[in-house]
Design goal:
Elements lengths: L38 H30 L5 H5 L2 H27 L3 H4 L9 H19 L17 H35 L1 H14 L2 H4 L2 H21 L2 H22 L12
Helix pairs in contact: 1-3, 1-6, 3-6, 5-9, 5-10, 6-7, 6-9, 6-10, 7-9, 9-10
Length: 274
């Protein structure tokens, strides 16, 4: 009988597969945040939003003084609220338009999708409640901290028009700008790198740090750090920048609305000093 008869054993046509079994690869854990942009882009956006206006401010004051107020000193012109606010509003609008176009062109999605704006349609009462609780709690803490006698925003309460400009700044502009960057751009990139807990702490720390130059005192900066912790935790829990914006606007807005009522629509600003 030929050795090539093809018989390989009793009842077997083919030998068993002796190759080692490959174990299935475990599925990798998806990142807690997966933003389309990277750390370098976030750094560049931060420079555009916060650093460029600071660098440009002295030049703007000089130009305004030469053109409109040659009889006033540099400091007097710089103290006019609209001289500082109007260029910031315009510059932020320019940056926002750039980001809208950049996000669409590079990532093929809207800016709101990229930053996870996500209006919390069924969580509005919760967000409002968090804003109220945060405000009341930290106002109680403020009584225990050494706070400066003068606020950097006192100049906004010399005229009703300036006071209304401050109200818009506090309730709408500042919360939107800060939430867009800190909770929309910065937090998700940090969370992807270091995890949620550390990202919340780092985001709140940087958020507080940029206010050091305004207050020049550790008491208000500590309060802002705690506010930042709450805002970033809300963003992390809800996956929504709109949610942290609502909390931020409520936190800032309630005292401003109280000031409007107390001063009869900013018509009696002297009542706010009592």
């Amino acid at each position: 009988m030929s050795s090539n008869s093809g018989w390989n054993g009793p009842g077997l046509d083919n030998p068993p597969d002796s190759s080692p079994t490959v174990a299935p690869q475990p599925l990798s854990t998806p990142p807690v945040e997966d933003p389309p942009f990277g750390g370098v882009e976030v750094l560049q956006i931060g420079l555009l939003i916060f650093v460029v206006p600071i660098i440009a401010a002295p030049f703007i004051v000089v130009i305004v003084q030469k053109l409109f107020f040659p009889h006033l000193t540099f400091m007097q012109v710089g103290a006019k609220p609209w001289v500082l606010l109007a260029p910031q509003f315009i510059w932020f609008a320019v940056v926002a338009l750039f980001l809208l176009d950049y996000t669409k062109a590079k990532f093929h999605q809207t800016l709101w999708q990229a930053i996870r704006w996500n209006w919390p349609s069924h969580r509005w009462p919760v967000m409002v409640g968090i804003g109220f609780i945060t405000m009341l709690s930290l106002q109680g803490l403020e009584r225990l901290l050494p706070l400066p006698k003068n606020s950097p925003f006192d100049q906004f309460f010399n005229r009703p028009l300036d006071a209304y400009a401050f109200a818009f700044l506090a309730i709408a502009f500042a919360p939107f700008m800060e939430e867009l960057f800190f909770r929309g751009f910065l937090y998700p990139v940090l969370a992807r790198r270091v995890g949620v807990g550390i990202a919340i702490f780092l985001t709140a720390s940087i958020f507080a740090f940029i206010h050091v130059f305004e207050y020049k005192a550790w008491g208000p900066v500590l309060i802002i750090f705690l506010v930042g912790l709450v805002l970033t935790a809300v963003r992390a829990k809800t996956k929504s920048v709109a949610a942290s914006f609502i909390v931020h606007a409520i936190y800032n807005g309630v005292p401003v609305l109280a000031a409007i009522v107390a001063s009869h629509g900013f018509q009696h600003l002297e009542k706010l000093a009592q």
